[in-house]
Input
Amino acid sequence: MSFEPAAESVPALLRWRTEQDRAAPACASRTREGDWRTVTWHELCSQVAVTSAALGRLGLRRGDRLAVLARTRREWQVAEMSALEAGAVVVGIEPHAAPEQIQYVLRHSRASFLVADNAQMISAIPQDGLAGISRVIVFDGPAPSIGPPDGISWQALQEPAVGVAPTHSAPLKQDDPATIIYTSGTTGQPKAILYTHRQLLLACRSIVEAFPEICPGDAFLCWLPMAHLFQRMMNLAAIAKGAQTYFVEDPRDVMTAVRQVEPAVFVGVPRFYERLHEGIQQRLARLPRWLAPLVGAALAAGRQSAACRRERRRAPVGLHIRHAVLDRLILKPVRRVMGRNIKFMVTGSAPTPIWLLEFFHSIGLLLLEAYGVSENAVPMAANRVREYRFGSVGKPFAANQLRLAADGEIFVRGEGVFSGYEGEQDAAAAARFTDDGFYQTGDVGRLDEEGFLYLTGRKAEIIKTSTGRRVSPVSVESVYTRSPLIDQVVAVGNGRKYLVGLVAVCRAAVARRLEESGLPLPESGEQLAGMPEVVELVRRELERLGPELAPHERFADFAVLPEPLSIARGELTPTLKVRRERVAARYAEMIESLYVRAEARPEARTEAGPNALAGGGVA
Output
């Protein structure tokens, strides 16, 4: 049995797994010396019981809210499971969020317990933000001395107390509240979504059923932010399948962990895979020159063979033999960057360029794009190992009923869908649903004849030009980011005659192209953005890809940004979605100068203005 259908709660699933595999490894984390320390299912379950009892002694009661403000780590999961065992509701907070936003979440969620990495993290929160907190617990270091609320260290919390049981008096039920998720949001304050144990278990079951390739004993890496639901759902899927979770506290160590752990499944975001691609290209560039023809032949054979697999046709005999030989000699060592056990990789949270999916496929690594919304505990759709279409986000999960509106907006109904944001008035909540109960996601897409879902943009982000055209910026940006030289693109043009673009380049790829001409890569971002050769490289890429777009969707002009868009500066959400208003405000002068420059060219004064891109460059 791969999943226990009778589990009434998330802690019950952990107890069931412990009964099945008491002495098997459950998870691992690094010691201070850098070694991996493994914990068995019995040890994990015992620690959860001890910690849950300790939280009860401190006053945590059924229905209370416990907030976790910490980086990804094994203790995060223990705190989560312990609070759930006590009947509390877990609130995840992004540790890199601004202090004011942390304060807002603590107040809005009515959290009474706060668990954090250390005392320094607590001290950064405005003092009145802790007004409703009765207890503060820190994973690292001594208990904080901040007066009310009372502080305690994680170490002290782990001391067992004989005869103390978990705080709830009755078993947890599936419809009891389990967690509150806050949307990252591209505008305004984050919104709160409450999910029950039933919905979390449904999400877990849906993931397990969609990916039967996951087996007991498989290794997972947990390195994405645990404040967000998806990483925690993958952790829950690991429990359901008896897989082992390795916690990576610092994202900069993820590739070291990959080499050590050699995971069977890897989950990441597009930016990670772009950097992985850059690393592979740099590794290939360092090979002896005499190997270059062999490497080129191997990559070409890989591309052709992968295309045959995607198109479900048999490769010619000559290609099959050539690919088999070159794969063993060249491609197999290349894909070992992800270890020897990798079955598939998953990407989500933002669009992944098709060229990147095809590149990994060509070297023998299957990268599957998935799609989810915060308002549905169950992932909306995903490509599967045996069913995938690059460019799509896969087929909808069985627990979801999807419907497309006349304008392409995606509606969803199912048990995993939320019932409304916490604290929202009934009228506002009802407006988010159709009369027959479908949640209106705001995402726009299409379904092909085989049932694969393709995302084409966000309804709220649709650009309306002054000529009456409606343009999806995400669709435009996804075409231009197919270039390996282009890292990020932001399309601008609301209320204007045509579009202009802000482009952040991929430094490593640009450096390789400049090196071919004997030119060094400038150190500063400003120098890079203003370098004529870099501007020319970008212009050629935009012109090369432009014909894939309608004339009114192409850029009339563009500027190279001095630095990539950043979460720290608020230009991206923690899930890497563009905060367009923030970007437009920061680069307002640059954008205006692009339109002034475009208008100065007679050929750019019509809706076919993008044909004047030859004059584009840094503003």
